[in-house]
């Protein structure tokens, strides 16, 4: 992406991302590329509606799921996961549904929206590509950042948050892909971002050795602290009661008032951290993927003063585990009817530099404080040595299901917006944007 210096300066003054639609394959194609609206990005990001939309999405669990993994070889892998009845209960299956080169450089980040409609991929080529995952179509490319894309997340169905080596975070509105906010404050690369479950604030860590908090509703930084070392990953717990910052092989656990509660030393270099609520006991679990070829499962106690401890290890990989993600899914009834048959479970997906994609079932987990359980994969796919780099897992909704869900949620949001005191907030947001442009 080499352009003249004069044009680069002009591009920096524009708040809206440059949008490039994919090349047309043939005239018979029904795909109509989305073009940006005339908005200059002055829309108010009133609330990244995580809490309300996520609760409705959890009411009906998906019966199948999609796994998407990016690679150093620029390839994007897509798998469809399903569960079928068996004599012992149920079993999982993985089926490849696509593989293709998605970028001109290695893929560094992938994210799927809640509900599984949108897929975003980020690369060292500085482009964020947007895909309709249900239709398996490329929508276009967002060329807003001036550095490699380091992080992508859909905090809700209607918003995409990105981070880059250019030191900025950007909040996009899905569908028209207008840039609602650009967050500036980091000096150097942004390594990781974590949006609070409420959808109102986000944390970020970067090369400048600072932890920054962002007000997503007002579009401004709200706090920052110096960490003294470069944070590589930041994550909120599933309930948002605390967060963790990772540095190489150590983890620091903070309360919401930025007080350090615990410091954990892991056995090897950490590559990924995720949280989920253990359905069988309502306990908070932390999954740590590392250089030691496994994922360690930490359990948190109700007493925040007591440190978490390892209750299980997910094994099977022959090289470093690069990423871990999870999703709650519905499972079929067993062939042999039982009284207390499980209706749902949480699957944990992992990728490794060995080229394998594994699926684990948390139903096998039990709370043993003395001997950590060794969990083995219940389904797997071999990419034949591809160096996998990033991972996302989403519901597998059909085109019709996705469109119907979008219509229902869109109607509900319009009603909520009418009930909300939007005029005052919108006006204040516009004034803030004018100040930003003046700077």
Automatic annotation (TrEMBL):
Ranges for region Disordered: 1-57, 394-439
Keyword Repeat (UniProt): yes
Domain of life, per lineage: Eukaryota
Keyword Repeat part of the UniProt annotation: yes
Protein name: Uncharacterized protein
Family matches, as PANTHER family: P21-ACTIVATED PROTEIN KINASE-INTERACTING PROTEIN 1, PAK1 INTERACTING PROTEIN 1
Chain intervals with Basic and acidic residues compositional bias: 1-29, 40-49, 396-409
